[in-house]
């Protein structure tokens, strides 16, 4: 989103009514329940912690941030802020809060809650994988180093006004304030949860947690006091866990399930698409996604760049793409082709077994080595891991597959105990449409900290500095900024901390009774479904 520049000290406020006037779907029916299935249980509903495919849209329905997106799009709009102002130098953001917004516990939300939430997410004790997103806020370095316990750049002007000063311009800052990590939470609820806020969440969102039976189901209930008039449409959403994707598909076909959260099982994809009645309920959507293998650069022999390049050359990406019914294109770099900053014409590392063997020999590993490949245990990921295992075996690398629940793979990645991870089921989908989003959390030094999502633990100070310089430009769409990002990713590829494998299209399915625009079921922000706006027609 371009920042408007003005000759005055402050840009004119962008104002909306105190309570957002939605253009509601004229066909929407209020009430009812839908059933969504997942194979794995949910690890957490804490917005400062949750960062996976499964809990992202759940958290977004429980909490709100100062900024938000138009449903089904990546178009920014004010959220808990009814208006905001940006200084001419791009360093000061003043947010004016909507009056009368209540937390699920009945208390009014005030500016102090915004400051508390930003302090909390950046405090190292929280171990938030999203802390690095807030690196431009003044005082960030002091709070992350433990020298301070509050962000000096966040000031409560009055109960309805928050001022945020940056230490440098950040072209992505309004997007950052729309991330789940920037959700506003009440301190008393966090304290009362005694370290378990992820199981006892309290927000301002369209839904509130009604019940959570670990290993069985979660039930979200409509927030009758929600500040967006007329929303949500549904009374409840039931998330059933422990459900194999093939069983979930059968139940959907029988009218017992409304959305299979893990998607259409690849083994059933051709069958579904070959049946006109079922294919009519399939929704396809583009996404800013890259599936990749992380190579832990702190674990020998993956600390040798030649070994990492050899592994890149060993992977047959075309064959892996075929395993998912060609619902993707082979990737050459971290950024997907439709993302600004993508380097056109870059071929990446070609599939070349003999060249890979030569590089291993050059690294003193002519006989190969043993390692481990971690993978999420939902189909097709174990099958993709087996294909990767076979490719690696062809160059003498013996990779033992560790097939685990999503939460366990994420934990191993954050702890740095996984030498290699196939990211499928957790593969990176952009939080917002800017090239910086593929760097900071998953390739930058901030993401390499304990609990972060930079599972390769790659940290190059020089590349980090170039990334920071790119984001310190005021205009996010400046062609020079896009060139800087292209240069950053080309330097990353020289270091080969990843094997980019493919860029995948998104396919999902819904029951016959589900209503709402198709874009809500492949929402680029409320991944995978925007529950606030969908409804049932019977």
From TrEMBL:
Q: Where in the cell is it found?
A: Periplasm
**The entry's keywords:** Signal, Transport
Q: Which InterPro entries match?
A: Peptide/Ni-bd, SBP_5, SBP_5_dom
Instruction: Cite the Pfam families for this sequence.
Output: SBP_bac_5
Q: Which GO terms describe its biological process?
A: peptide transport
Q: Name one GO cellular component term.
A: ATP-binding cassette (ABC) transporter complex
**Stored CDD domains:** PBP2_NikA_DppA_OppA_like (cd00995)
Picking any one GO molecular function of the record gives:
peptide transmembrane transporter activity
User: Where mainly found?
Assistant: periplasm
Q: Which SUPFAM superfamilies match?
A: Periplasmic binding protein-like II (SSF53850)
Q: Which residues form the Solute-binding protein family domain?
A: 76-448
Q: Does the keyword Cell division apply?
A: no
Q: Which residues form the signal peptide?
A: 1-20
Give the family this protein belongs to, as stated in its UniProt record. Belongs to the bacterial solute-binding protein 5 family.
Question: PANTHER family this protein is in?
Answer: OLIGOPEPTIDE-BINDING PROTEIN APPA, PERIPLASMIC BINDING COMPONENT OF ABC TRANSPORTER
Q: Please give the name of this protein.
A: Peptide/nickel transport system substrate-binding protein
């Amino acid at each position: 989103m371009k920042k408007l520049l003005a000759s005055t000290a402050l840009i004119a406020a962008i104002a909306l009514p105190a309570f957002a006037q939605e253009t509601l779907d004229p066909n929407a029916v209020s009430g009812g329940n839908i059933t969504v299935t997942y194979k794995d249980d949910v690890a957490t509903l804490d917005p400062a912690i949750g960062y996976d495919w499964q809990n992202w849209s759940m958290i977004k329905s429980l909490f709100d941030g100062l900024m938000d997106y138009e449903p089904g799009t990546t178009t920014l709009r004010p959220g808990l802020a009814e208006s905001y102002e940006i200084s001419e130098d791009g360093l000061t953001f003043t947010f004016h809060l909507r009056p009368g917004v209540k937390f699920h516990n009945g208390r009014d939300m005030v500016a102090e809650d915004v400051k508390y939430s930003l302090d909390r997410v950046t405090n190292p004790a929280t171990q938030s994988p999203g802390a690095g997103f807030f690196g431009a806020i003044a005082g960030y370095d002091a709070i992350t180093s433990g020298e301070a316990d509050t962000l000096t750049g966040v000031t409560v002007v009055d109960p309805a006004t928050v001022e945020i000063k940056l230490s440098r311009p950040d072209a992505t800052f309004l997007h950052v304030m729309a991330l789940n990590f920037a959700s506003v939470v009440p301190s008393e609820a966090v304290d009362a949860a005694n370290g378990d806020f992820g199981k006892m969440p309290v927000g301002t969102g369209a839904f509130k947690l009604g019940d959570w039976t670990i290993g069985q189901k979660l039930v979200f209930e409509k927030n009758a006091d929600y500040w967006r008039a007329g929303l949500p449409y549904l009374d409840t959403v039931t998330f059933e866990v422990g459900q194999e994707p093939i069983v979930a598909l059968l139940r959907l076909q029988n009218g017992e399930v409304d959305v299979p959260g893990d998607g259409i099982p690849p083994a059933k994809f051709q069958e579904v698409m070959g049946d006109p009645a079922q294919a009519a309920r399939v929704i396809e959507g583009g996404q800013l996604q890259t599936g990749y293998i992380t190579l832990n650069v702190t674990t020998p022999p993956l600390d040798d760049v030649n070994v990492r390049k050899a592994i890149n050359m060993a992977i047959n990406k075309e064959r892996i793409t075929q395993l998912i019914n060609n619902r993707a294109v082979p990737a050459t770099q971290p950024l997907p082709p439709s993302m600004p900053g993508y380097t056109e014409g870059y071929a990446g590392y070609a599939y070349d077994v003999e060249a890979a063997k030569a590089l291993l020999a050059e690294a003193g590993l002519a006989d190969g080595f043993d390692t481990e490949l971690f993978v999420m245990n939902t189909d097709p990921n174990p099958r993709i891991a087996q294909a990767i295992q076979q490719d690696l075996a062809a160059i003498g690398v013996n990779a033992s597959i560790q097939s685990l629940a999503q939460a366990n793979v994420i934990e191993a990645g954050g702890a740095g105990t996984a030498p290699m991870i196939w990211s499928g089921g957790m593969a990176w989908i952009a939080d917002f449409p800017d090239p910086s989003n593929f760097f900071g959390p998953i390739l930058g030094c901030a993401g390499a900290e304990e609990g972060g999502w930079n599972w390769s633990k790659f940290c190059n100070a020089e590349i980090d500095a170039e990334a920071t310089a790119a984001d310190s430009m005021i205009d996010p769409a400046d062609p020079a900024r896009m060139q800087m990002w292209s240069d950053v990713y080309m330097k990353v590829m020289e270091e080969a901390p990843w094997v980019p494998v493919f860029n995948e299209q998104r396919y999902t399915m819904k029951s016959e009774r589900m209503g709402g625009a198709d874009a809500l079921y492949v929402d680029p922000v409320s991944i995978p479904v925007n529950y606030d706006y969908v409804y049932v027609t019977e």
